[in-house]
Write a structure and sequence with these properties.
The chain is built from four helices and no strands. It has one domain: Non-ribosomal Peptide Synthetase Peptidyl Carrier Protein, Chain A, CATH 1.10.1200. The chain has 83 residues and is an all-alpha fold. Helix 1 packs antiparallel against helix 2 and helix 1 packs antiparallel against helix 4.
Length: 83
C-alpha cells in the first residue's frame, strides 16, 4: 500500500487539532516530545492508533525505535511504502 507524505501529514494535522496542539511552524524537524509538540504517552498512543487506522501500521509499535520527530514518522512510511 503506497502512502504519500501528504496523507501522513493530514493524519498528523488532524491529531494535532484534536489534541489542541499548535501546528505553527510544524516541520520535519519538529520534535514529538518535550519542547517540540510536547506529546505525553496518551497522546502518542492516540496518534499511533490514528496512523494505524489510516495506513495499517504505525512507527510507534513497528519501528525499532520510537519516532522522535515529525520527520521520523514521515520517513517510516516512506520506507514502508517502498518495501
Amino acid at each position: 500500500m503506497a502512502t504519500d507524505e501528504t496523507a501522513v501529514q493530514n493524519v498528523i494535522d488532524t491529531f494535532l487539532k484534536r489534541a489542541e496542539k499548535s501546528r505553527d511552524d510544524l516541520s520535519v524537524a519538529t520534535g514529538l516530545w518535550g519542547d517540540g509538540l510536547g506529546l505525553d504517552s496518551l497522546q502518542a498512543a492516540e496518534l499511533s492508533v490514528m496512523l494505524e487506522d489510516a495506513f495499517g501500521t504505525d512507527p510507534f509499535s513497528t519501528a525499532e525505535e520510537l519516532p522522535q520527530t515529525v520527520g521520523d514518522i514521515l520517513a517510516f512510511y516512506e520506507v514502508s511504502s517502498s518495501a
